[in-house]
């Protein structure tokens, strides 16, 4: 196995069965996620139209963050990282054993997360005083945040069960249904506010409650929509609870370090929320709007590749086929960099027109667009780092090493807090997305530095050269898209249809120029990956 796994080597390994072609799974996951993200952006657009940016939106964002502080621990990231590799191994022992351990995890989640939800509802007023301490200077803002927290806390249980279902289905190589499930959450989060906004206003109640009820019901349906697929894939529920099950212990060995690492990042979010609450009003809302757009390329490509790669690499590791595991990993890493570097840089160049198109109507003002755009640019340039972290961490998890990503997370979180504290007085809310990007780069660097201990020796310089050429190609494409957008704005104006037409032309043009620049700069992977992604 050569150290430098370039595109020619990867292609040869793929066609000779030397690694898994994850692009089919990535395509299915990306299509499902694209549907979910489109509805997600529609939800944010409705949110901005109805509520704009102010006291109520700040309260909603802070309240939603409280159950979300635990989401990564009991939902997508930690549960998948621990559940999928072990369930892949149990699958080799037969369907009954696979269903037994899956049922045990389901029942334990129901008990533990259910208890946390009850406790969270009881302690909501006290949690809000800690998390959003700065809100106390504005009358009734903490009280509103506490009530919204009570309404939305059960969302944690629903999304944990949805993540459990996703882990089972991913093990069965089913990626579309789990990735499209959040679309139902977003649809409900759109429908309920639109249908009930006037009702709350007529009754003299803050209409922001409609968003909270949308989150609650949408979270439940996100789990329920996956249930039929579970049974189609052969899952049979068993009323089995065993905290001493040896397989459960194997999962906990992986889960605990991942959870601790994520706990550090969740503490980071809690610290951010606390600090942002002292900044000018609307700061939390601007960051939240920018964060939602940032998650479009991250969810479509970064999460997709990492999610699909984990079961593929885990399967090879279980079977002792370490060469194939290494090849599949590097193929997935090249793919995620290709997808996220190009799209993220182009979005950075078009950040203002994208933000304006999605949000600027109703109560959302041009100044809100300006502030959100600044946060978006600082967030979006960190997407390739965050996406690569998920992909590299998947290799560690496949080899059942969750401690290294945990230690890297601790260091990154500490750095994030230091940067945020050091810059928040000077540059305000902008300090937080900048800190996120810098800390993500450091986190990735630590993981890559230790990666050879798992996958074997490899040369880092070809990977750096590949990423550098992608950055150059994306900047050329992004600049071309920015110039075309500016010219079209002068001709078409900024009406809503004109904005759609403008971005519908400048966005694809930027991608086309980026692709041409990739070929001119010798990034032959561009042609290779596009063929695989669009191949039936």
Explain the overall architecture.
The protein has 536 residues and is mainly α. It has a domain at 54-260. The chain has helices at 7-15, 23-51, 55-68, 71-74, 76-91, 95-131, 141-152, 155-171, 176-202, 208-224, 227-232, 246-276, 283-318, 322-349, 351-359, 366-380, 383-398, 403-427, 431-450, 452-455, 461-492, 496-520, 525-534.
The run of helices and strands is HHHHHHHHHHHHHHHHHHHHHHH
Percent helix: over 70%
The number of helical segments is 23
Unreliable residue runs: 9-20
Count of strand segments = 0
Overall mean pLDDT score? 83
Distance between the termini: 29 Å
How is this fold's topology laid out?
Blueprint (H helix, E strand, L loop, with lengths): L6 H9 L7 H29 L3 H14 L2 H4 L1 H16 L3 H37 L9 H12 L2 H17 L4 H27 L5 H17 L2 H6 L13 H31 L6 H36 L3 H28 L1 H9 L6 H15 L2 H16 L4 H25 L3 H20 L1 H4 L5 H32 L3 H25 L4 H10 L2
Helix pairs in contact: 2-9, 2-13, 2-23, 3-6, 3-7, 3-12, 3-13, 5-6, 5-8, 5-12, 5-13, 6-7, 6-8, 6-12, 7-10, 8-9, 8-10, 9-10, 12-18, 13-14, 13-16, 13-17, 14-16, 14-17, 14-21, 14-22, 15-16, 15-22, 16-19, 17-19, 18-19, 21-22
């Amino acid at each position: 196995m050569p150290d430098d796994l370039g595109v020619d080597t990867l292609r040869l390994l793929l066609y000779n069965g030397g690694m898994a072609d994850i692009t089919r799974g990535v395509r299915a996951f990306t299509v499902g996620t694209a549907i979910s993200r489109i509805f997600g952006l529609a939800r944010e657009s409705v949110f901005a139209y109805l509520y704009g940016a102010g006291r109520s939106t700040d309260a909603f964002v802070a309240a939603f963050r409280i159950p979300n502080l635990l989401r990564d621990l009991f939902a997508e990231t930690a549960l998948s990282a621990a559940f999928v590799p072990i369930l892949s191994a149990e699958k080799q022992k037969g369907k009954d054993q696979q269903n037994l351990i899956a049922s045990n995890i389901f029942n334990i989640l129901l008990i533990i997360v259910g208890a946390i939800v009850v406790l969270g509802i009881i302690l909501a007023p006290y949690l809000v005083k800690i998390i959003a301490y700065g809100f106390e200077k504005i009358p009734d803002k903490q009280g509103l945040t506490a009530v919204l927290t009570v309404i939305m806390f059960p969302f944690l249980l629903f999304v944990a069960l949805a993540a459990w279902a996703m882990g089972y289905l991913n093990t069965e190589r089913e990626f579309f249904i789990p990735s499209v499930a959040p679309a139902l959450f977003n649809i409900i989060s759109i429908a309920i506010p639109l249908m009930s906004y006037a009702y709350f206003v007529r009754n003299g109640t803050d209409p922001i409650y409609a968003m909270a009820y949308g989150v609650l019901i949408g979270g439940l349906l996100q789990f329920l929509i996956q249930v039929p697929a579970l049974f189609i894939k052969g899952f049979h529920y068993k009323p089995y609870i065993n905290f001493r099950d040896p397989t459960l212990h194997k999962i906990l060995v992986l889960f605990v370090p991942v959870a601790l690492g994520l706990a550090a990042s969740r503490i980071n979010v809690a610290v951010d929320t606390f600090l942002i609450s002292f900044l000018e009003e609307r700061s939390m809302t601007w960051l939240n709007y920018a964060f939602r757009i940032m998650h479009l390329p991250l969810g479509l490509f970064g999460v997709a590749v990492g999610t699909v790669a984990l079961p593929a690499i885990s399967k090879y590791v279980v079977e002792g086929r370490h060469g194939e595991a290494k090849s599949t990993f590097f193929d997935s890493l090249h793919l995620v960099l290709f997808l996220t570097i190009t799209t993220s840089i182009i979005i950075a160049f078009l950040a203002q027109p994208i933000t304006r198109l999605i949000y600027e109507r109703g109560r959302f003002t041009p100044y809100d667009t300006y502030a959100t755009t600044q946060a978006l640019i600082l967030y979006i340039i960190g997407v390739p780092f965050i996406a690569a972290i998920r992909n590299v961490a998947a290799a560690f998890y496949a080899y059942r090493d969750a401690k290294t990503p945990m230690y890297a997370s601790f260091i990154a979180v500490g750095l994030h807090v230091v940067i945020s504290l050091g810059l928040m007085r000077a540059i305000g809310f902008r300090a937080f997305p900048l800190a996120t990007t810098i800390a993500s780069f450091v986190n990735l660097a630590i993981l890559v530095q230790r990666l050879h201990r798992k996958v074997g020796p490899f040369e880092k310089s070809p990977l750096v050269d590949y990423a550098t050429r992608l950055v150059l190609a994306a900047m050329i494409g992004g600049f071309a898209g920015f110039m075309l957008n500016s010219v079209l704005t002068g001709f078409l104006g900024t009406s809503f249809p004109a904005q759609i037409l403008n971005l519908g032309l400048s966005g694809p043009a930027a991608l086309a120029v980026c692709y041409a620049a990739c070929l001119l700069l010798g990034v032959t992977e561009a042609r290779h990956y596009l063929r695989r992604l669009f191949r039936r």
